[in-house]
Amino acid sequence: YTYGSAAKGQTGTRSAVRLPSSVIPKPSFVALSQIVRDLKGQHDPYFIGCGGYLSMVVVDGHVFSFGAGSLGHEKTPPPVVRIPTQVALLSRVTSVSVGYQNHCAAVTANGDLYTWGIGVHGRLGHGNSGNVAHPKHVVSLQHELCVTVSCGEAHTAVVTRFGGLYTMGSGMAGQLGLGDTTDSSLPRKVSLRYETKNGSTR
To answer: What φ, ψ does residue 170 adopt, rounded to 5°?
Structure first.
């Protein structure tokens, strides 16, 4: 079920909303049975990601995206995709996230992190600020087992299996947690040490 603004197809409804405001004010059913009929498993959506004009849903490890922006589809999509469409380059996905300013991330069952979309400030973690149209493996984390990811407005954070936290992207407000306000185009580990009242660190 989805609800809210449907102006750019981000609710996954098959046709444009006819309300003057293009708003779906209450939960509306999104039919996924037809597009996942060939997938093995229970076909239960078990993870969703929403941000800006783009939404994603994970079904049996496969990612479907809809709306407008960095959809990650193999073929160049139309400006608005109203029907959930599979991101063919991804499989065995366990976690997804959508940033407000058009960037996306996904974690797979084997612990790999993939990002795509707008790369300004280095938020994709590929060592530069370039845009990426399709899911791309963040190779600098290939020796880590990523578990979950979260995309902010212009930065990304990922948690690894043993509790490590890595951040990348815009640091102008200190949101990377690295002790400064500079950007980082590669994932950097956040130190979670803190001082106790007696001056020792943990």
So the answer is: -70, 130
- Looking at the chain, the number of H-run helices and the number of E-run strands are 0, 14
Using CA atoms, how far apart are residues 116 and 38, in angstroms rounded to an integer? 26
Residue 198's pLDDT is 62
Point out which residues pair with 156 in neighbouring strands.
151, 168
Residue 96 has which token pair? 């997804």
For the chain, the residue count is: 202
Burial of 140: CB neighbours in 10 Å, binned 0-12, 13-18, 19+: middle
* Distances 13 to 28, 45, 60, 87 between C-alpha atoms, Å: 8, 16, 21, 18
Beta strands in 101-183 (DSSP E): 103-108, 113-117, 132-137, 146-151, 155-160, 165-169
The CA distance from 192 to 194, in Å, is: 6
81-124 pLDDT, tens per residue?
888 888 989 999 999 999 987 899 999 999 999 999 999 999 99
The 45-51 sheet, strands edge to edge: 45-51, 54-59, 62-67, 81-86
CA distances from 127 to 86, 139, 147, 173, 188 (A): 27, 10, 21, 20, 11
- The answer to whether the CB of 10 falls within 8 A of the CB of 71 is no
Pairing verdict, β 165-169 and 2-5: unpaired
